[in-house]
Amino acid sequence: MHVYLQSTEYTTAASSLMMVLNHFNPKFLLSRENEFRIWQESANLPVRASSIYGLAVFAKRKGLNPRIVLEEKEFDFPDYRFKKYPKQDIDHAKFMSKLHHKRAVDLGILIIKREFDFEFVKRTARQNPIMLRVNAGVLRDSKATSNYIIVFKNGKEGLTIMDPIKGRSIVDMKLLEKAFETLWKKKKRDHRMIVFE
Fold first, then answer.
1. How far is residue 114 from each of residues 1, 14, 83, 111, 190, measured CA to CA in Å?
2. What is the pTM of this model?
3. Strand 67-70 relative to strand 110-113: parallel, antiparallel, unpaired?
4. Residue boundaries of the structural domains of the chain
5. Disulfide: which of 33, 85, 156, 190 matches 80 by Cβ 3.0-4.6 Å?
6. pLDDT tens, position by position, 117-176
7. Cβ distance 61 to 104 under 8 Å?
8. Phi, psi angle pair for 166, to nearest 5°
9. Contact call for residues 134 and 149 (beta carbons, < 8 A)
C-alpha cells in the first residue's frame, strides 16, 4: 500500500480511503483531486468530517465490497463546542449522516452494530485491510484526536498502519491498543471500522 499525506486537516478519512482504493486499483490515483472528490461525496456537512457511511458508499461505487462495523449507528460529536460548531450545525450533520446511511443501505452495504474489542480489531485486520477510528494522537505523540487510519496484515503476526499525517509504520501493538481504547475515554467517540474485501 502506498502512502498519501493529506493536504487539509479535514481529509484524514478521505485520504485513508484513497490509499485503500489505490491499493486495490492502482488506476485510482493518489491525488489531491481524488482526495477532495472522496471528501466532497462523504462529508457530514456542515462539520466537514467524513461519514463512515459516505466513505463505504464511495468504496462500493469504486468496486470494493466494504462492510461497516460500529458500536453506534447515529452520528455523534460530543465535543463539538471545542470546534466552535453551534448545536444547529450538529443537527444538520445528523440529518446528513442519515442520508449517507440510506445510500449505504440502498447499495446493500452490510452494516453491523456491535461492541468490539481490540482482539476483534487484530483478527479482522489480519484477514482484510480495515479503516479504523482511533485516538490518533496516541500514534502521533500529540493531543487526543478522533481519526481514521488504515490497519492491515504485515507478515505472519505483525500489523502495519497507514496514517495520512505520519505515513506508514509497523505498529507497536500496545500503542495501537492504547489508541483504540482511549478513543472513548479521551474523545467520547464510539469504535467504528470499515472492512475491505
1. 29, 24, 29, 10, 11
2. 0.94
3. parallel
4. 12-195
5. 85
6. 999 999 999 999 999 999 999 999 999 999 999 999 887 667 999 999 999 999 889 999
7. no
8. -105, -15
9. yes
